[in-house]
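Inputs:
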Amino acid sequence: MTQTLSILLSIHVLIGVIGVMASYMTVIWLFKKNIPICSLKVSSLIAFIAYIITWITGGYYYVVYYGSNVKPIIKEGPTPWVHSVIMEVKEHIFLFLPALSFVVLLTLWLKGDRLKENKRLCNTLALVALITFIIAISMALGGIVISGAAR
Amino acid sequence: MDNKRNKIISSFGIAAVVAIAFIVFATIFGELYGPFKDWLKETFNHHWIGKGVIAIVIFYLLGFLGICKMSDSEKAMTRMLNIVFWIALLGALSITGFYLYEYLIHV
C-alpha cells in the first residue's frame, strides 16, 4: 500500500470515530432534561462533516485498493463471510449516513429552539439521531472485523 | 419564518426517504440483475460510486426542489422525521438480511 493510501485509511478511521462520538453525544444530549441546544448544533455539524470526510477517504481506498488487494485475501481466507456479508453491508448502509446526519443537523439548526417546548419533535429527532449512531457504530465495528480478517 | 423552516426539514426528510429507498433498491437489484450493476460500473467507474452519486443527487435535488411544495406544519414535519427513522431501520435490515441470505444460500 502506498503512503498516501495509508494516510487516507488512517484519516478514514480517525474521522469516522470522531463522527461516531459526535453522533453519540447528539443522542445523549437529546435525551437530557435540559437540552443543550448549542452543543447539539456543534455535535450534529461535526458528525455530518466527519461522515462526508470518512466517505471520501474510505471510498477512495475502497475503489483504488480494497477490491484488488484486500478482498481476494479475505475471500480466499478462513472467513470469506467477512467480505460477503460485513463489507457488502458496510459499504452500502454507510451511504445512509450523509443523508441521515444532514437531516439531524438541519432540524437542530432550524428548529433547535422548539425542542424544549415540543417533546414529540424532540423524541422523534432523537430516534433519527439514534439510528444514525447505531449505523455509524456498526460501520466502525465492521471495519475492525474487516481489518482483522485481512491480516 | 418558522413555517418556512418546517417546509425545509420536511423536504429534506422526504428526500432522505427517497435516497435511502434508492440505495436499498440499487443494492439489491444490482446484485440480482447483472446489467444494472454493469451499467453503474460503466457509467461511474465503480458500482458503489454510482449508487453514492445518484443517492446524493436525489437527496439534494429533491431536498431543494421540494421545499415550496411541502406542508408548513410542525406536525407534518415531525411525522416526516418519524418516516425517516423507519425507512433507515427497514433499509438497514433489508440490506443486512439480503447479504446474509445471499451468503447462506451459496455456502
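Chain A has one domain: 3-150. Flag for discussion at group meeting.
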